[in-house]
Design brief:
Elements lengths: L3 E5 L6 H8 L6 E3 L8 E6 L4 H9 L3 E3 L2 E6 L14 H9 L3 E7 L15 H32 L3 H18 L14 H7 L7 E6 L2 H6 L4 H12 L3 E5 L1 H8 L3 H10 L6 H13 L1 E8 L2 E8 L4 H8 L3 H4 E7 L1 H7 L2 H6 L4 E3 L10 E6 L3
Parallel strand pairs: 1-5, 1-6, 4-10, 6-7, 7-8
Antiparallel strand pairs: 2-3, 3-5, 9-10, 11-12, 11-13
Helix pairs in contact: 1-9, 4-5
C-alpha cells in the first residue's frame, strides 16, 4: 500500500533538500501522473533494527525493509487558493497524500532567498495554513451550492450533509482546521469524501542550521516556534535539511564517524520517517518465506486477513489461518525451534488484530 506523506511549505525553506536527503539523492524517483507541474515521489526505506535480530535468527538469503512514500510538492505562496503561483495545482497535489510534512525555515542565511527580509517561522507557517483553509472553505461552499436546493426539498440525507457543511464552513471561517470538527461515526464517510486538506494529520518540521543541529542548543527563534507549533496540536520536530543531505550522501562508516563526532544519536531523517509512522497510525509486521525476511506496513488495528492482502490481493480470499509470533517473545527466545517448543507460535484466524512487530506465517488455500 502506498502510504504518502506530502512535503509542503513556502519556497526556499528546504523542502527539496529534505526530500533529496530522504531519498538519498540517488534512489530512483518517479513523477506523479497528474497536473502540469508534477511533484516527485520518493520511495523511502524504513530502517528497523528488528530486521537485524530476525536476520540473526532466521539467516535469510534476503532482507527487505518496508517503505513509505514522500512527495515533494512545489512551494505554496500567498494567494495559492486563488491560483497564485499555480497554487490550485499544488493544492490539488496535497489532496493526493495521506499526511503532510510542513517544513518551516528557522535559520538566517543571506545566500538563500526568502519571501521576506525578516525571519518569522510562525508567519510563514500561517501563510501556508491560511491557503489550505481557504481552499477547504471553497470546497465546502461549492458543495453547499451543489446540494442546498435538494436539501430544502426534504431529502433527509442531504439535510444532514448540509448541517455538517454549515458547521465546517463556520469553523473554517474562524481559521480552524477541519480536524477540529468532532464527527460522529456515521458522519466520517462523508467527511472523508470531501477530501479536505486541513483534515489531514500534520508534522511540522523546523528546518534549523547545521550549527544549531550539531551544537544541540536551540536558538531563541527555534524555541519560540517550537512552543507555537506544539500549541497547534500537531506533531513537531527539528532537523537541519542541509546536514541530513550531507550525511545521506556519505558512506555508512563515514556517516557513523561524523555522527559520533557531532554527538548525533539518531539521524533526523530516521526521526522524520518514524514520526510519519505515528502520524499515519501505521505498524510493521514481518514475514519469513522462501528465504526472504520482509517487513510490511499496515494501519494500526488491521485484522490478519487484511495484512495478508498487503502481500498479495488474492491472499484475502485464500486465507485459512495465521501462525503468529509476538515480538516480545522473539526478542527474548531468539529461536524458531524453541518458540514452537514453548507454545509461543499462536494460531489465529481472520479477525486477529495484528500487533506491531508480529512475525506471521500465512496458511492459504490453493489458488
Amino acid at each position: 500500500m502506498g502510504f504518502k506523506c506530502g512535503i509542503i511549505g513556502l519556497p526556499n525553506v528546504g523542502k527539496s533538500t529534505l526530500f533529496n536527503a530522504l531519498t538519498h539523492a540517488g534512489v530512483a524517483m518517479e513523477n506523479y501522473p497528474f497536473c502540469t507541474i508534477d511533484p516527485h515521489v520518493g520511495i523511502v526505506e524504513v530502517r528497523d533494527k528488528r530486521l537485524d535480530i530476525l536476520k540473526s535468527i532466521y539467516m535469510p538469503d534476503k532482507v527487505i525493509p518496508t517503505t513509505l512514500q514522500f512527495v515533494d510538492i512545489a512551494g505554496l505562496v500567498r494567494g495559492a487558493s486563488e491560483g497564485e503561483g499555480l497554487g490550485n495545482q499544488f493544492l490539488g497535489h496535497i489532496q493526493m497524500v495521506d499526511a503532510l510534512v510542513h517544513v518551516v525555515r528557522c535559520f538566517e542565511n543571506s545566500n538563500v532567498a526568502h519571501i521576506d527580509v525578516q525571519l518569522d517561522p510562525r508567519r510563514d507557517f500561517e501563510i501556508v495554513e491560511t491557503e489550505i483553509l481557504l481552499k477547504d472553505l471553497e470546497t465546502v461552499e461549492n458543495r453547499i451550492q451543489k446540494i442546498h436546493v435538494k436539501a430544502r426539498s426534504g431529502d433527509q440525507k442531504l439535510k444532514k450533509q448540509m448541517a455538517i457543511l454549515e458547521e465546517l464552513k463556520e469553523l473554517l471561517s474562524q481559521g480552524k482546521s477541519a480536524k477540529s470538527y468532532h464527527a460522529h461515526p456515521e458522519e466520517e464517510a462523508f467527511i472523508r469524501e470531501l477530501a479536505l486538506l486541513s483534515n489531514k494529520p500534520v508534522l511540522i518540521v523546523g528546518n534549523i542550521s547545521e550549527d544549531e543541529a550539531t551544537s544541540g542548543k536551540k536558538s531563541a527563534v527555534t524555541e519560540a516556534f517550537e512552543k507555537f507549533a506544539l500549541s497547534t496540536g500537531n506533531y513537531f520536530l527539528t532537523l537541519s535539511a542541509n546536514l541530513e543531505l550531507e550525511l545521506a550522501e556519505l558512506e555508512p562508516d563515514e556517516c557513523k564517524l561524523l555522527m559520533r563526532e557531532w554527538h548525533i544519536s539518531e539521524p533526523g531523517i530516521d526521526r522524520l520517517i518514524h514520526a510519519g509512522y505515528i502520524l499515519l497510525k501505521l505498524i510493521t509486521f514481518f514475514t519469513m518465506e522462501s528465504g526472504i525476511c520482509q517487513a510490511w506496513t499496515v494501519p494500526k488495528g488491521s485484522p490478519a486477513v487484511k495484512a495478508a492482502a498487503q502481500i498479495h490481493s488474492t491472499f484475502e480470499n485464500r486465507f485459512i489461518k495465521a501462525e503468529v509470533r509476538h515480538w516480545a517473545d522473539i526478542e527474548r527466545v531468539r529461536s524458531e525451534k524453541m518458540m514452537h517448543e514453548q507454545g509461543l507460535v499462536h494460531i489465529e484466524g481472520k479477525s486477529y488484530i495484528v500487533r506491531d512487530g508480529d512475525v506471521i506465517t500465512f496458511k492459504l488455500a490453493g489458488g
